[in-house]
């Protein structure tokens, strides 16, 4: 629940960043994750006037208010009202919100058209006009587009075929075939409800050679270890780390803000895992933490030891940096641009950003003392594409609904990619495309950056990789979003690392995503080879599922007292992707549901199975002769996850090792 209070005074509009009723202490991790708040208040406002407003409404705990108060540069004009003294001060602000709108109460809706919706603690002193957009006024000197998240290109995508009948109904399976399978003819959609399921019996010597070390997890079920075994798909090619010339490269976005406690060995572990799956480097996201430099030092040093090379570049987070901070950015860059593992493209150090439209990368390059290959996440405008200080643009639009920050009941499309390509290609610039597996976030009023929604991402990982391959000849660089952002559930790196907890462990602990790395291997190989179809060299089954049914009712105990917005677009489904050279047979027992068997063709196939409560068991027999089985380490529950809604997912891989 939230209120949007808009004040009208003197013809100027203003949305008051007001407070939550339950204002408590300042969050203990003020810089946990850059995705703490994907909102940028790109224009800064007069801090004293904001502070007075904040004070008037007792809003210091509001993330919006605090962020505004943190800013000191005045860039434009908007009206602020001091409710107590009726004094009027003016300052101007443009607000970019890409992912997060901070609200007083656990938001279940996100703002659109730039309005930051907040609740007012003292609404009686204010005149409310109700929700409105256009609540922020851009100054004409502002080089940035103000309306940054109105989609001009996103339309309702064709609905995915993924929504299934309820788990109690008949098994109703859809197989989305890649053209690989199309070459092999249509897939027969056989549904088998075999009562004589021989779970656990099929194992071959190849199957258990390494991959399925059995552990014990919740409920004592025998489990597949989430640790990716050595025999899972790997890429061992070698790329010279620092001399790339627009060869096709894949990076993963790494949140330095949550690894203040990392040692060199922790860095090396992450880098080796990423490298083994074909990821060429990390985009090191930094805010303005005092430990950024220490951790960058460790990262650049650790990368030197990675066999085959590992590229690094900094991705400055302009949630935290100000666009006026050219010197600060240049100083940080200078320390690393000549390190052996600094990614260079066309001889220039590569650098990126999270937002920051209007930052002067030419000026930064001058201060660094050499040209930069800057590919920031800026808006897809011709001005940005033609900006001489930029070599390309990066997009953050990795999820359906991301543009408006509004969950939609639709699949991912490449429409935003086309918008970027539409400006970068005429300008002769590069475009770096995002790839992500999921988005679910569930921060309640216990933190200042409350946010509570899920983007429909169930088959996103496959859908997006297929899109990437179809656009492959227009793309040089990919950035997987992300390696380790647990707060928004789009991490694909390990969750059991010594990172600091921003509160997201409530829904990420124990939910492993590294199987998605295995899934990506054939796609990364194909992307780099310039091929349109995934290159499957190892028979692999990857599965993923949520930890509880959608029907779980947790309002009473949940930190938001509400499920995330968009949860009703999800289905209770177990997703299985097979990657085989010659096809095979998949058996799944999802809880108490009837056993399910499906033959799969070669290539990459998706199977969607109604999700039942209980243990999730998988068997995979390939035409090549390998067979393996294993259980998910997470059992599906009909109830809440430790009292809360958890729309994150868990994944696993089983591979025949063949
Ligand atoms: C989402 O779309 C699917 C497919 O069109 C449909 O079956 C389902 O009812 C929709 N869900 C909601 C909540 O609108």
Automatic annotation (TrEMBL):
GO terms for molecular function: glucan endo-1,3-alpha-glucosidase activity. Residues 151-168 have a biased composition (Low complexity). Residues 1-23 form the signal peptide. This is Mutanase. The lineage of its organism: Eukaryota, Fungi, Dikarya, Basidiomycota, Agaricomycotina. InterPro entries: Glyco_hydro_71 (IPR005197). Transmembrane segments: none annotated. It comes from Kwoniella newhampshirensis. Residues 122-143 have a biased composition (Polar residues). Keywords: Signal. Gene3D superfamilies: Glycosidases (3.20.20.80).
């Amino acid at each position: 629940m939230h209120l949007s209070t808009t004040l009208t005074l003197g013809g100027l509009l203003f949305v008051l960043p007001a407070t939550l009723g339950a204002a408590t202490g300042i969050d203990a991790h003020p810089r946990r994750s850059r995705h703490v708040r994907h909102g940028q208040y790109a224009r800064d406002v007069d801090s004293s006037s904001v502070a007075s407003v904040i004070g008037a409404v007792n809003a210091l705990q509001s993330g919006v208010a605090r962020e505004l108060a943190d800013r000191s540069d005045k860039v434009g004009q908007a009206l602020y009202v001091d409710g107590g003294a009726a004094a009027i001060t003016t300052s101007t602000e443009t607000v970019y919100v890409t992912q997060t709108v901070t609200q007083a109460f656990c938001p279940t809706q996100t703002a659109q058209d730039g309005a930051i919706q907040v609740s007012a603690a003292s609404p009686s002193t204010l005149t409310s006009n109700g929700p409105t957009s256009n609540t922020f006024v851009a100054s004409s000197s502002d080089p940035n587009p103000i309306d940054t998240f109105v989609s001009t290109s996103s339309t309702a995508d064709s609905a995915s075929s993924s929504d299934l009948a309820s788990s109690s109904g008949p098994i109703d399976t859809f197989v989305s075939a890649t053209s690989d399978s199309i070459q092999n003819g249509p897939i027969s959609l056989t549904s088998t409800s075999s009562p004589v399921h021989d779970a656990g019996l099929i194992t071959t010597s190849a199957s258990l050679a390494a991959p399925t070390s059995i552990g014990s997890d919740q409920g004592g079920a025998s489990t597949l270890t989430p640790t990716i075994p050595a025999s899972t798909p790997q890429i061992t090619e070698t790329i010279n780390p620092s001399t790339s010339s627009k060869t096709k490269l894949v990076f993963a976005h790494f949140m330095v803000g949550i690894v203040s406690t990392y040692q060199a060995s922790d860095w090396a572990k992450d880098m080796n895992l990423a490298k083994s799956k074909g990821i060429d480097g990390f985009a090191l996201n930094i805010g303005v933490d005092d430990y950024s430099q220490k951790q960058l030092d460790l990262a650049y040093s650790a990368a030197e030891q990675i066999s085959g090379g590992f590229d690094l570049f900094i991705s400055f987070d302009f949630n935290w940096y100000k666009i006026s901070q050219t010197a600060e950015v240049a100083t940080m860059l200078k320390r690393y641009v000549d390190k052996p593992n600094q990614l260079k493209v066309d001889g220039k150090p590569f650098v990126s950003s999270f937002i920051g439209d209007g930052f002067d990368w030419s000026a930064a390059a001058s201060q660094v003392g050499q040209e930069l290959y800057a590919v920031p996440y800026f808006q897809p405008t011709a001005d940005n594409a033609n900006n001489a200080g930029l070599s390309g643009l990066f997009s953050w639009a990795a999820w359906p609904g991301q543009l408006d920050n509004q969950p939609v009941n639709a699949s991912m499309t490449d429409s935003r990619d086309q918008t970027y390509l539409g400006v970068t290609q005429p300008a002769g610039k590069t475009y770096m495309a995002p790839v992500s597996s999921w988005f679910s976030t569930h921060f309640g009023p216990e933190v200042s950056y409350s946010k509570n929604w899920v983007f429909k991402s169930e088959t996103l990982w496959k859908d997006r990789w297929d899109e990437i391959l179809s656009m492959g000849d227009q793309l040089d660089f990919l950035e997987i979003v992300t390696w380790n952002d647990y707060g928004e559930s789009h991490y694909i790196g390990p969750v059991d690392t010594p990172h600091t907890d921003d509160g997201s462990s409530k829904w990420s602990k124990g939910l492993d995503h590294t199987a998605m790395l295995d899934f990506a291997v054939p796609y990364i190989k194909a992307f780099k080879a310039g091929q349109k179809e995934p290159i499957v060299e190892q028979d692999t089954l990857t599965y993923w599922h949520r930890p509880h049914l959608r029907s779980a009712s947790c309002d009473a105990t949940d930190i938001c007292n509400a499920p995330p917005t968009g949860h009703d677009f999800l289905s209770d489904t177990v997703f299985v992707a097979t990657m085989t050279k010659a096809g095979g047979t998949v058996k799944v027992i999802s809880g108490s549901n009837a056993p399910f068997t499906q033959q799969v063709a070669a290539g990459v196939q998706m199977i969607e199975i109604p999700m039942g409560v209980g243990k999730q068991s998988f068997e995979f027999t390939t035409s090549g002769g390998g067979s393996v089985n294993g259980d998910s380490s997470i059992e599906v529950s009909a109830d809440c996850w430790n009292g809360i809604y958890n729309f994150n997912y868990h994944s696993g891989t089983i591979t025949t090792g063949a």
